[in-house]
Amino acid sequence: MKEGDDLSISFDAAKFRAAPDADMTAASDQSQGDALLRRILGSLDDDKAEDVVTIDLSGKSQMADYMVVCSGRSSRQVTAMAEKLVDRLKQDFGVLSKVEGKEAGDWVLIDTGDVVVHIFRPEVRDFYQLEKMWLPAAQQASLN
What digits encode the pLDDT tens for the residues 58-96? Predict the structure, then answer.
């Protein structure tokens, strides 16, 4: 071997890297979504949310894996629950959520990516009946 000969082989690492297994990626995404859902439900429970309904959107929508619908007793409680939830998700998961409606406090939408959360005042929730659009008929009957 002459001086200057290089024994290393150069290659494009991006081409060499194996593509992630789709089942493994889906499983890890699902477990992350489940952990996020558990934290959301825990936060809402801590803040005394009422009539919490979880809707599995898997296979129904590509926008999220779950939808959570709940009520607060007043505009002030709705706003406080939303603020605390957003803060907790940022601290625990590093999730930056999109929030709509916090100023009015009647209906706050929190989009975390995997889970969409709707926090209503009871009168507003009764008016829109959002969960009835997404729940199967059998589960709707149990809400009445």
Answer: 877 788 999 999 999 999 999 999 999 999 999 999 999
Say how many domains are in the chain: 1
Write the CATH number for 50.
Answer: 3.30.460.10
Q: Rounded to an integer, what distance in angstroms lies between the CA atom of residue 98 and that of residue 96?
A: 7
What is the DSSP code string of the chain?
--TT--------HHHHSPPPPHHHHHHHHHHHHHHHHHHHHHHHHHTT-EEEEEEE-TTT-SS-SEEEEEE-SSHHHHHHHHHHHHHHHHHHH----EEESTTT-SEEEEE-SSEEEEEE-HHHHHHH-HHHHHS-HHHHHHH-
Question: Is residue 31 situated within a structural domain?
Answer: yes
Q: Is residue 134 part of a domain?
A: yes
pTM of the model: 0.76
